[in-house]
Amino acid sequence: MQIDKEQFKKDLAEQIQKDYSQSIDTVSTGEIYQSLAKTIRYYISGDWIKCKDKVRDNLEKQVYYFSMEFMIGRLLKETLLKTGMLEDVTDVLKDFGFKLEDILESEREPGLGNGGLGRLAACFMDSCACLGIPGNGNGIRYNYGMFEQRFSDGNQVEWPDDWLRNKNPWEIRKENRKEVVKFGGTVRMDANLKPIHEGYEIIHAVPYDMPIIGNDDKTINTLRLWSAELILEDSELNSVEYSKLEAKKIEIQKITNVLYPDDSTDEGKLLRLKQEYFFVSAGLQSIMKDFKKLKLSISEFPNKVAVHINDTHPALCIPELIRILLDEEHLEWEEAIEITRATMSYTNHTIMQEALEKWPAHFLKNLLPRIYMILEELDRRFNDKYSSSLTEEQLRNTSIIRDGYVRMANLSVIMSHSTNGVAKLHTDLLKTEVMKDLNFLFPDRFNNKTNGISYRRWIESCNPTLSSLIDETIGKEWRKNPLELAKLNDYKDDSTMLDKIERVKNINKENFSDYMKQRYDFDIDPKSIYDVQIKRFHEYKRQFLNALHILYLYHKILREPDYKMQPVTFIFGGKAASSYYRAKKVIKFINSLAYHINTDPRVKGRIKIYLIPNYNVSLAERIIPATNISEQISTATKEASGTSNMKFMLNGAITLATLDGANIEIKDQVGDDNIMIFGLNKEEVLDYQSNHNYNASDIYQNDQDIKMVVDSLVNGFLPKLGYDGIDLYDSLLKENDRYYVLKDFHSYKEASAKLRCMYKDRKKWNKMSIINTANAGIFSSDETIKRYAKEIWNVNGDF
Ligand code: OX2
């Protein structure tokens, strides 16, 4: 977008005056940020309106991506880059005496997600907009996002993330588009067998819309987040006592107050169920209203609307759409089911049993009586249709309601036209293990869509130094089509280019080290190898294995004071769910280890270890461009895909990985020489699991190195860890090491040593690095979204 700088200056000053009744030289950077964002939002509003009108007038099919999480990250820089306003706005701010960098830093990150699932949703929204696909997000506007993580005596402490304290300048509250969501009450059938829902509680859902901007082709989609609010009609105002009103307001707001800081178990169950229905019901009602304005036959609904269910959290979309079609549009069951199935598609993101949602039937019966009736009918129809062709066990595995629980994954597969996994291995496991009976019934519905990442955020925006070098080398075409990055393969033996690659990495490492010094007073040596593991803390992700190995290196250095090694800084970042006791013990372990190693003069800088507090998208954007080694070390079969693995690869880090999730596909892209693989593979893990022939104590008893590190969890070797090592010790020996940490220890140790040794030959390393970047184009979320659009959503277009 071309802007007139003088006009923009005036508009910004005016916005500041409106917002604060102050002149520009008296406001803070935080205040400038607010007014700047609003000015930019105003500048794009014309295109936003045009885009909505175009979609409506051309009767284009729209995709609605329903997700409990959208981890969108900071928006200002991305918006400036996409609108092409970055340079002009930087100049304007300079004229006013401000540095853009400071203003970017004052943006509070909306932490509306836990990790990969929420970040994927954000990348997908970005790709839809950039490809010109009418794809809208539908989610929850949490008053408090993901908690702020702090450490106290090495322990994680959770602080509220009050991200809306200074307001969100990108959003627009649309009270006139509010919806009514009904909870509780009873349902009876009238004389014509029509259901009558009575005695329910009404909650108003108010949408807040944010623009999702494409690059240069003028597509601006909408992320609609719903907030639970008390809205009284004028007539009600006089009839409610003030004190009761306040209490009611608080009660209602509770529904959208907090994001559950847990992506593995369902906590605060009833409230979470309420959240799920709340945004699903509001979203579908508003979609139906828009559809009806088109004045088409209801049978056209699936031709104009695709609803995507991001994991099972929004699976109530299914009975809710059926409810609308039956009770409000007065369709027959068969047609309602057909339309619903043709509209819905579902992505599964995990095979971890504890994360597969199951709701106690009585919860649904009490909270959503009409929805529960519909679920019972769907289950009855499923059983009627398939009971004769399935064994009792198959029927038990596939039915929707069983043993007093409603199984949301089964509902999602049975009632949608597409179920996809998020990497080849994961889809394969869904089809052959976890959902094998559903796959037997509906083989055509299962498909793979390997995850992807937005290269606009994950290289263009976060790594401008590497991006410019790529421009210089192969031209700028890759910014439109990341598959063009493959042209870098031609430079893998070009020694000038390899030197440049190294220089870029070194600049990024220095910048990162400076930032860490200034913000946390960390002393990171930019000459050391940056070995990074950033992700949620989870047993299956095995930060524990990484930390045990560092403990091993510490012992080695103490035992062999002259031991020579390439200096390495081990960097961790990530939050543990507040209720996840063991993950929190791993955090404590890492912090204790960091304390002892970083302050021990005998280590002489050979190893250092840092756990950066409050890991989030903005931090990831700083860490990833500076990383040499990317740790992707989950127990094989457990990580559905992973997406940080792709971000690191794109930025030229070398992956140290198990054969899990998308690591396998990364290996296929770069070849065996440019990735370091270790550990058990899928077959070996499945074999241990089914034959119960794994014995961790045997390994411990018979291996001196392993015994030494494991014992130092509990023998006082790390005084700061205190008694907190006991639980971790027990996880290995009393619980027989469910994630095969001890089994994989040696191959991990050797792979890590080999990789660090390879760093000595910098030419070879830089070659590996460039090969990684060159072959990362396939993991662009644009490529993934093209496949969703064509193969799942049935959206046609020129992309
Ligand atoms: C995550 C998965 O754990 C991760 O492997 C995957 O890359 C990501 O989703 C995006 O697909 N909550 N988070 C996930 O699954 C669930 C459930």
From TrEMBL:
Known catalytic reactions: [(1->4)-alpha-D-glucosyl](n) + phosphate = [(1->4)-alpha-D-glucosyl](n-1) + alpha-D-glucose 1-phosphate
Family annotation (CDD domains): GT35_Glycogen_Phosphorylase
Enzyme class, first EC level, given as a word: transferase
E.C. number(s) listed in UniProt: 2.4.1.1
Keyword annotations: Allosteric enzyme, Carbohydrate metabolism, Glycosyltransferase, Pyridoxal phosphate, Transferase
Keyword Transcription: no
Residue numbers bearing the N6-(pyridoxal phosphate)lysine modification: 647
PROSITE patterns in the record: PHOSPHORYLASE
GO biological process per UniProt: glycogen catabolic process
InterPro entries (alphabetical): Glycg_phsphrylas, Glyco_trans_35, Pyridoxal_P_attach_site
Cofactor section: pyridoxal 5'-phosphate
GO-annotated cellular components: cytoplasm
Similarity comment: Belongs to the glycogen phosphorylase family.
Function description: Phosphorylase is an important allosteric enzyme in carbohydrate metabolism. Enzymes from different sources differ in their regulatory mechanisms and in their natural substrates. However, all known phosphorylases share catalytic and structural properties. Allosteric enzyme that catalyzes the rate-limiting step in glycogen catabolism, the phosphorolytic cleavage of glycogen to produce glucose-1-phosphate, and plays a central role in maintaining cellular and organismal glucose homeostasis.
NCBIfam families given in the database record: P_ylase
Name this polypeptide is given: Alpha-1,4 glucan phosphorylase
Phylogenetic placement of the source organism: Bacteria, Bacillati, Bacillota, Clostridia, Peptostreptococcales
